[in-house]
């Protein structure tokens, strides 16, 4: 999982991301992508908050899950897609700051299931702090009606 | 955890829910609330989708986590608030249909930590189907600066 | 998942359990089995303890995972086996008492993956107390070399 | 979390490990210990197997949970102990081989809760392979009756 994605592989991930309506609704943006590694960023704003003003665990989970899912997709052949079977997320500190960045990575790619992880960092005043840690089981799928990428 | 919440307890949960900016952004609505049990509903729409058009796991997680969190809050005294320490969610079937309903419940309330769960059902054509199952560890907090409910 | 397992189905689960060397080493015993539901019991003793004298989380997990796994196996056709893909366990109270009982159940059976759960109760002085709660993703397998039941 | 544990800190972990009856029953051995990092090894044998002859997920979990727990303990002051609040383990490949090694580490240490992880590798023919990945929430405790280390 070194090197770079070729143009078609990168374009496939960017196209799939643009179809995730939730990412646009939250204001999330796709960042760096590489084989087995994908970043998604999100700027905190009141529309994604929980009751104390922090970013809601659901929004943190959304970018972490998508970063992990696209990390998985980046190592699969073009005819296969990915579905999240399960994830666990530990919320380690309030998600506040200028920007959140979720860094997804593939831990181990099996034939049917892939274990992925995502670390979510909050950036503030030039520093970053780990605020959440996710592990997710992704299921590699093919040939399901209407499901691609 | 039988009976009903009194008016002040119910009002506290409704006020806290209304401060969760993400719930309004997603279009989620607070439903039935009772001691140890809280429901949150969400109508699928393109703005909360993943790449295949299903509701994104992040949006499913958001209502499940909030339903579980408010179930926890409903059994705590007024001076205490709740933070999610971690959750795991299993995504069992595509989240599609006319409406999703997350039903949160307290499994066991400890002194510092509460185990909660939430089942998410998709309603379509008069039937409901289990599409996700969450367990969450909630942390009971008090006296943290600026954190209430 | 009502009714009873037939004699062949029940015998299959008992035979598989007897091949789990760890269950004998821990002193665990297979209890009631029904379609989608399996119980395993364990008497606390110093050989399964953690450092405070409680039953070790690993031993609690072992009976919870096996109870959940056999619950899954009980709803599958004879030619299929089960592997645990992942589980989460919440440890809610010290595992002490006269006897622990893990009650496994199938939450939802999909084509490839089954979501199962197990509650672990500690019995003491005629009462039982919930001490752990597990959810597990079981993978239905067939035709893998040497893997049955 | 660099450097080495001093003699008293290392002795404390070794003494606590020796009180875990389950570790002796399984045949597990404490390996390298450093601030925030602890290894536990286990040789596969029929007494710790599941039904296919692999090491049982419960035994894999036991060494992973203990390695993670002692990693947490290694960064806490002497008057504090550790309890596992929850863990998730993903089982990535059959646990077979000459030796299993669980490597526990602290991901983030909070005031009350610590997030830890453990990777479990199977060694065979001079190579090691990742077979399981655990994340665990550890609770730092003090002053509970009879609970130390």
Write structural notes for this entry.
The structure is a homotetramer of 149-residue chains. The first copy, chain A, is of the alpha+beta class. Chain A has one domain (7-141): Thiol Ester Dehydrase, Chain A, CATH 3.10.129. Helix content of chain A is 23%, strand content 41%. Chain A contains 3 helices and 6 strands. Chain A has helices spanning 7-18, 21-26, 57-73, and strands at 29-34, 37-42, 81-91, 99-109, 113-124, 127-141. Chain A has a 6-stranded antiparallel β-sheet. In chain A, strand 4 and strand 5 (113-124) form a beta hairpin. The first copy, chain A, is globular. The two termini of chain A are 19 Å apart. The mean pLDDT of chain A is 94. Chains A and D meet through strand 6 of A and strand 6 of D. Strand 3 (81-91) of chain C pairs antiparallel with strand 3 of chain D, so a sheet runs across the interface.
* Assembly type: homotetramer
**Text of the CATH class of chain A:** Alpha Beta
Q: N-to-C SSE series of chain A?
A: HHEEHEEEE
CATH architecture of chain A: Roll
Strand content of chain A: 35-45%
Chain-wise SSE layout:
The structure is a homotetramer of 149-residue chains.
Chain A: H1 7-18, H2 21-26, E1 29-34, E2 37-42, H3 57-73, E3 81-91, E4 99-109, E5 113-124, E6 127-141
Antiparallel strand pairs in A: 1-2, 2-4, 3-6, 4-5, 5-6
